[in-house]
Amino acid sequence: MKMSEKTIKTSASLCISLILILFFCGCINFPNITAEKFSLAKEKHFEDLHYAIEIYPSTVAPGKILKLRVLLEPKKDLKNVVVSISDPCLFTIDGEAEKNLGSLKANTRNYVRFDLRAPNHIEMEMNCKIKLRITYIASFNILTDVAVLSEAEKLAGNKIAISKSKLPSALDVYLSFSKEQPFIDGEEVFMYINYRNIGNGIIGELDEGNVVIDLPNNLRVKNCGDYAQFGNKLILNKKILFVDNRGETSACLFEARANSPIDIEKLSINGKYKYEIDDSIIVTLEKR
Amino acid sequence: MSNKKTIITGISSISILFPIILLCGCINPGGFFAASVSTNTVHKSSDLLVIKNIKVVPQRVYAGTKFTLYFTVKHVGDPRTSDAVIYSLRAYDFGICKPITQTDMGIQEIQPGEEKEYSISLQAPSNSEMADLEAHCPIRIRLTYENVKARTQVEAYVMSEERMKTLQRNGKFQNYVPTQKVGIGPVKIYFEFLQNQPFIAGENVVFFVYAKNEGDGDVENGKILVNVKIAGGYSICSAELSFIGDETNKVKCTWVPSINADEKMLYLIAEATYDYSFEKTEDVTVYPLPQ
Fold first, then answer.
1. Span B228-242, average pLDDT
2. B59/A contact by beta carbon, under 8 A
């Protein structure tokens, strides 16, 4: 019994010594020790997503590979997410320049990797600007109370709290009325819809059919030229162009109708937009 | 008398009217006021090879004695970015001193960062040759290097017209100030653009190229042949630049950039090979031997 304990101790110490020898001789490949250490080249937090661009190495010798990794963390659900190298500078891309990630769920971590090969020869050491582009389709949503009072209720001077909400979005929708709420039964009210790009990216245009207004029963459409009416829905029937980050303003004329003395209902606007974010990182390209 | 008055009134009217018309933009002064757009310029050292640490041993040289001049040639370039240089070195004027060792060190190669030491031993003149007076031996060393490349790289940001309009519509359009990186060595090539960047793909871009001698020596033959090309691509223009003083004439190049994307950063490289020489003089004082 005593003998076997001694044998166990001896074998254990032999094993430990052997592992240590192998470790220092480099015979065992510990993956974490030799792992590539990506360095953070850029990180941005926008309304729709957070992204980080990491590279390895930060200085690239001729003919060597630059590994570029993009981490995307959407703050809301995004569709048709595409990450591409829009300008590889003097590098050539090993594989696809464009990676389609499809739909990404909010608060998930998603990685895209590109391998870029440095040219075999350059005349001068240089700082190469590699440009990336992230495109996606995101949705926006705005919800507001529409309060219509009968004449008698309005005269009674009741105060009505109007609640409004909207999802944070690179495309900000600002809704306003020509008169203050609550409206009086039978009066005509203009509603103005303003679109604003508050993000750092580009919205080319808002496409036809991509904005839907769900009307409450206490508003009746009298004229809403930019939108086609389908029952209680108004659907954008033209392209909205953006100039200097602002879309053309839409104006709709409604007649307020109180279906009860105090009629408070919801108006919602839902839409989707294509967004493009351009960014770049600087990588030093060595001469030799 | 009346005629003179009319002429004076006419001249003063013109002198008043001309600046008004000019300020209103009715007269286009053409190239007279045409200004180049700004660029960020990053310079590397104007020195490539230097002669330094010149030392005379013994420090005090007397008539009729031997003395030695020690000096070092250094390649000041960065080993990661510069090339080796071939040079020739010789001492050629010694005044009334006489060299007693080799004065022509021949053709040699030096690597970036490397230093090479040299020495020349000389015989000081005798008291009688100096008429018992203090004398001076100006020792001139001439270093000539060959086939050295002057390089400048400048950014050329090119964009499609459609992309530019999209950016303008979104309020994201900005002019880009390019950086030009001027390489090591006394001969520096510069780009001068007349148009703001980004350049529009498919439209003419006009720019000038010229060179300056920013070192203490001379460019052999007083001229260089400059070639401008796209990094990793085709040649745009080439021309001979002649030095008048320390600066050359400006050569006009026209380029029509084309890209297969909506925007791209291209790099223009101007390159010229030249030979260059400079001198270093060490004035050695020879004292008469006390009688």
1. 92
2. no
